[in-house]
């Protein structure tokens, strides 16, 4: 089975389990492992197994998942968005995730960045994940030049 890394990449509202953007863990087989202190939430963990299973099968190498809204009786959303990805392609997973997040804040995707993402996708299809990571990272750099990065 493939090792799947999981990291919080966006917190919408307030997380009752105090998950932070620094929290990262991984699934090795059927075991949850952390490299150090990490906030885990049983509500979030309960929502991830189907996606982890799909990633472990190898059909895809990354995905996003959101935990269930913890406080559904309140007028504003409260949940965490997680990035899940193959450990051996983690840098590429993170670049794609951040690129997608920044595109939401962008009026128009720059042509230079779009060209680089197209090249990255071609390398992914060819199985050259190192070159895909290089192109995706360059595309992210191009996008960051025009988008104000929210803190």
Describe the structure.
The protein has 151 residues and is an alpha+beta fold. The protein has two domains: 1-88, no CATH class; 105-151. Helices cover 42% and strands 21% of the residues. The chain has helices spanning 42-47, 49-57, 90-103, 111-126, 129-146, and strands at 4-12, 24-28, 31-34, 62-66, 79-86. A five-stranded antiparallel beta sheet has the order 3-2-1-5-4, sandwiched between helices. Strand 2 (24-28) and strand 3 form a beta hairpin. The protein is globular and about 40 Å long. It starts with a strand and ends in a 5-residue tail after the last helix.
- The amount of helix comes to 40-55%
**Strand segment count:** 5
Biggest sheet record: 5 strands, antiparallel
Shape: globular
What is the count of DSSP helices, taking H or I runs of 4+ residues?
5
Sketch the topology as an H/E string, one letter per element: EEEHHEEHHH
Low-confidence stretches: none
Radius of gyration: 16 Å
Mean pLDDT: 88
Give a topology summary:
Layout: E1 4-12, E2 24-28, E3 31-34, H1 42-47, H2 49-57, E4 62-66, E5 79-86, H3 90-103, H4 111-126, H5 129-146
Antiparallel strand pairs: 1-2, 1-5, 2-3, 4-5
Helix pairs in contact: 3-5, 4-5
């Amino acid at each position: 089975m493939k090792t799947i890394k999981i990291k919080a990449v966006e917190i919408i509202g307030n997380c009752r389990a105090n998950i932070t953007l620094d929290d990262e863990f991984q699934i090795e087989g059927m075991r949850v492992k952390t490299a150090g202190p990490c906030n885990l939430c049983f509500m979030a963990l309960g929502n991830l197994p189907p996606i982890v299973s799909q990633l472990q099968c190898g059909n895809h190498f990354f995905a996003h998942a959101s935990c269930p809204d913890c406080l559904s009786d309140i007028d504003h959303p409260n949940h965490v968005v997680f990035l899940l990805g193959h450990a051996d392609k983690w840098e590429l997973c993170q670049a794609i995730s951040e690129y997608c997040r920044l595109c939401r804040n962008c009026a128009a995707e720059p042509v230079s960045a779009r060209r680089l993402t197209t090249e990255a996708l071609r390398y992914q299809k060819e199985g050259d994940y190192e070159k895909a990571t290089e192109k995706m990272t360059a595309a992210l750099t191009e996008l960051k030049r025009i988008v104000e990065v929210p803190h």
